[in-house]
Specification:
Layout: H1 2-18, E1 24-28, H2 32-44, E2 48-52, H3 55-58, H4 76-86, E3 91-94, H5 104-114, E4 123-127, H6 132-141, E5 145-148, H7 154-165
Parallel strand pairs: 1-2, 1-3, 3-4, 4-5
Helix pairs in contact: 5-6
Amino acid sequence: MKMKTTKKKTAIASKKSLIIKKKTILVIEDERPLLAVVDAKLKKNGFGVIAARSVDQVFNANLEENGLGIISVKDIKEAFDYLNDLEQIDAIWLDHNLLGKENGLDLVKKIKANGGRWKNIPIFVVSNTEGQKTINSYVDLGISKYYVKSNHRLDEIISDIKTSLR
């Protein structure tokens, strides 16, 4: 009887070791219908998703869904510490124009200034903003790639994210 139990435990342990952690994408997009489509498409491709429509919501992502209510943060470092505790973010899908006072460029500046792990997270800007000055500002801050929404399919962007995370 003991031998069967040991074999069973070994088989379970073996299966657990095959489980691969799902990569999580932080998606910040102000257009609700597009956010829903991107969320569904990323999940269909095996990603976990944290969604927000503004820079402020980034630091409160999924709290209502978890029944925790909204938290307030005293400073950007506390906000990043909160996100680290909430869930590991592997990449960021970011629109330029967002709800609220701040845009995507403001968030990238905060991320890069904060340093640490956040500084190295791949950022994919997906926006209708085509101005070269805006694009150059993102590139100068070290984003992974800038996409003009109308020129790229979601599958192409997701493929690039997958490649980046390998």
